[in-house]
């Protein structure tokens, strides 16, 4: 049996909604055949079958909210393991008789083959995807030892990475038959770290066969998630150190399981906070006769959360300048027709500003860096995010290695990403890993704004409307096409001098575009 897991959802995307299952339990499936569609606040994802076989139980029905690495369902690789279609099938009869207590006692010979089939199909426990740019982790603590019985979704081990602690749950009921990565071992995503034998899983799934009434009453309590035995080592440690009551913590994990973040949030909350929490949503504001209430879309909720998080976490500051667009507009007007004829794409201003920003980033590398804990990560590549407004909301696809592209290459990349954004066809990869962002509010007529950082980036350039204004040029008052520029930056890493230097470099490159050609 192979689990169907929620794939990586993308940078800053924490959850998704199950939109549609294309198959139902019992249907035959083929490897790489699309089984389920997931909706995130930005894109739609298709999850394919990991192997040939039969679709087993669906753990996350349509409409359910799931997180990265969560089990969606499973595929039984041996179709014969499904319910028998006829009494004449010799292989199906023993397997079907095994779960029945009445049949197990008088027919031990039939029970033995069933257990043999279960035991032969050991389930592998693999390391899940641990996040973008995380290539390895360290086994922290095994909560079970070899020979212990385990239940599906029960936490078996905690893996520590340089960013987060990842809990790995049992993919099936059974007995932990083998541990391949002991405490302290370094592991990588998709590595097999243990195996679960299915023989005792058959017995564990039917405790009433032994005439024990107490275990039969335990599953409902285990599903609530507050009992200490169901807590992972990290959660148990937080609960113990802060003297928390697990039953008072609302779990956000699968089946209501308490995650590390839930415990940390409970430990940080003031004592009076829990009783007051349910009061607010219980009394929404009454609507007037000319008002209506509309639920925020998932994209809008995420935009609101991310922007507020950026304000709360970064020491954000904005510096301004203005740029005379005369020369770059003249260059564009002179060559736009021949440019479009040769390259098949229009010559816009975004390619000039992208090249100007890359030159400025090379001069002030702090703006192209990010903070990771107490470290600074300097990026020696230039993946420029370009904000695109769509009917669903703002998205920021990324032009990869923009420093290696010509003006035509940049214009083509931006055009392709913009079309994909408007058609709702952007992938997770299209929006991950940007090092700096450019947003152009000028296309909507904005004269000036203070853009908000696209975390974890340290800088964002805001372009604005081009306005004809009187300017003093060499002692004369001339009418010039002027644009205000705004650079918002994280003052924790970028000093004021660096921010001003960056913006002046962009200004100089746009006002004298030949500098871009000469790499000055």
Key terms for this structure?
4-stranded antiparallel sheet; 520 residues; 15 helices
How are the secondary structure elements laid out?
Blueprint: E1 2-5, E2 15-21, E3 28-29, E4 34-39, E5 44-48, E6 53-58, E7 65-67, E8 71-76, H1 92-97, H2 101-104, H3 108-120, E9 123-126, E10 137-142, E11 149-150, E12 155-160, E13 165-169, E14 174-179, E15 186-187, E16 192-197, H4 199-204, H5 218-224, H6 233-241, H7 260-268, H8 273-276, H9 279-282, H10 298-313, E17 316-324, H11 326-343, H12 350-363, E18 369-372, E19 375-378, E20 384-386, E21 388-389, E22 394-395, E23 398-399, H13 407-422, E24 436-440, E25 459-463, E26 466-473, E27 476-490, H14 496-511, H15 514-518
Parallel strand pairs: 20-24, 24-25
Antiparallel strand pairs: 1-8, 2-4, 2-7, 3-6, 4-5, 6-8, 9-16, 10-12, 10-15, 11-14, 12-13, 14-16, 17-27, 18-19, 20-23, 21-22, 25-27, 26-27
Helix pairs in contact: 6-7, 12-13, 12-14
